[in-house]
Amino acid sequence: MSALFDRLQRLFDEGHGVELPDLRCDAHFAPPQLRPAAVLIAVTDRPEPGVLLTHRPEAMRAHPGQIAFPGGKLDPGEDAVAAALREAQEELGIDPAQVRMIGASDRYITGTGFDITPVLGLVPPDLPIVPNPAEVSAWFEAPLAFILDPANHVTRTGEWGGVARPYLEIQWREHRIWGVTAAMIHNLSRRLQWLGAGDG
What we know:
Low-confidence stretches: none
Number of domains: 1
CATH class: Alpha Beta
CATH topology: Nucleoside Triphosphate Pyrophosphohydrolase
Radius of gyration: 16 Å
Number of strands: 11
Shape: globular
């Protein structure tokens, strides 16, 4: 068994066993019809674990150029875990058998009408990543401790639909993680309490 897996599973279970009423969500300005989707938050099993993230191609119709977790809409008959694993395989070539599933976290409803379930899983370090150029222009691995640190979650304000709205931004090296992806990271950081957990 992996010590990191055990630690993540314990923190995940403990963190999701309490009520957190003020998690980030955009449901208040979402359309009435929602499309279920899922993303995989793939943590690499290293002494200093990382998280796999992608850059979306500039030519994509939805959220071009933004940083995202591998993921997408649920196919008929799929649950969030199956969809997240399928999308990670389609986008990055990650074999679902290589993912040790930890669990599905808090759903995030977006202003564009997606009901996204983030799924947390552990993957071996240095997997052979094969990005699909139709969906991924580049990928990178950001340190888990850095992106989960609330000190690195900076509040910005932008205009959406003619209204000024706050959003989060996480800057790691040249990578600007913001919007829905940053908000899901922030929610997960509150659940895991990674920095205060130690290694026990």
